[in-house]
Amino acid sequence: MASGNAPYVPGPAGTRIVAAGVDWDAVKVVRSFGLQALDRIAEPGAVVVDPNRAAPAVYFFVRPGTTEGWNVAQSTALSATTHVTLPPESRVMPPGPYWLTSPTEGRLHTDTAALRTALETVTGPRPAWNPRMEHFA
Fold first, then answer.
1. DSSP E strand boundaries for 12-74
2. pTM score over 0.90
3. What DSSP designation does 123 have?
4. What is the pLDDT of residues 74-91, one digit of tens each?
């Protein structure tokens, strides 16, 4: 996936550390939930798997600015001020990060609403956090 207008730094083994929030926002999901959500999205965009983390993750790419206010369980929105390590465009298996769905195979962006619906189906809605003051004493 070309970096487009996003600044990046070359990483090890052909990877690139690319700024989010320019050409895309990313949604990072625990791998097991991400793979289940992917099965529920009719037309997914590019998807990266990072198997090298203590908790393996899946990254979905959505249009920039569409993750504002993101509040979906077991996922984190990555936008301006964050970076994602992207594999070389030809890497489709480990070692290291790899493309599960390559942007060269079709579209780059997953529809944000479709991703939210798929993740909420898999993980359930995030409960509202209602802190009690005794937790902060």
1. 16-19, 25-30, 47-50, 57-62
2. no
3. H
4. 999 999 999 999 999 899
